[in-house]
Design a protein that fits this description.
The protein is mainly α and 115 residues long. It has one domain. 97% of the residues lie in helices and 0% in strands. Helix 1 crosses helix 2.
């Protein structure tokens, strides 16, 4: 009978240990699920922030490029106007040379165009 009581006590202790272990594993699983959700939310927020930062940087780069392109176009226009003014001035100073140069260029273009 004593052995039966000891076996009964051991069985009850084993059941209590299994119940405690089951509770511990359940808490661990819940904690892992919570950690995954937190990590997922944190990563999602980080990706959103990085995407917003990249979009802002791209927009700033585009604005700078457009401004630079506008400045370059303005400078090219100014240079073209200056060159035209210089050419007009040269034609006014030497009209005969200008006419002869134009005739020579036209003659060469005409010869090349015939071939």
């Amino acid at each position: 009978m004593a052995a039966e009581k000891d076996l009964q006590k051991d069985l009850e202790a084993l059941r209590a240990d299994i119940a405690a272990l089951t509770e511990t594993v359940g808490r661990l699983a819940k904690d892992m699920a919570d950690a995954r959700a937190t990590m997922r939310d944190t990563m999602r927020d980080s990706v959103k922030t990085a995407a917003k930062d990249a979009a802002a940087a791209g927009e700033e780069f585009l604005n700078d490029a457009m401004k630079l392109g506008g400045d370059a176009a303005g400078a090219a226009g100014d240079a073209a106007h200056a060159r035209m003014a210089s050419l007009e001035s040269e034609i006014r100073r030497n009209p005969i040379s200008a006419v002869l140069t134009a005739l020579g260029i036209g003659f060469i273009v005409g010869i090349i165009g015939r071939r």
